[in-house]
Sequence to fold (119 residues):
Amino acid sequence: MHKKTIYNFVKKYHISKPAFIAYTIIICLIIYFFLFTIFGQKGLIAMFRLQEKIENVGMTKEGLVNKLHNKKNMVDGIGSESLDLDLLDEQSRKVLGYVGKNEVVIYQNEEEKKDEPKN
Fold:
């Protein structure tokens, strides 16, 4: 059916064989490049995926920059020029395990921590 339709079209408009082959090749190339532009390795879909990745990396970067800023503030607070005694006390307790004179420390085994239900 398609052969007859194409044959009748070529006959009706008096298209020569080389011209028909050239038109067919051109149409196939146009379709190929159109599909490659959308679905290819560097096509539109790949571009949108890369933009999403860039946004995710940007958000991660902002989070890390905020953490870095907070750490710098902590370091500046512990520095000799501007000593923040509360921050120094908190960090010495947290990192070094220091305890005050009248404080009691209760240690918990790792096995007991695992057995407790999490809320």
Remarks:
- The two ends are 72 Å apart (CA to CA).
- The chain has a mean pLDDT of 84.
- The CA atoms of residues 93 and 102 lie 14 Å apart.
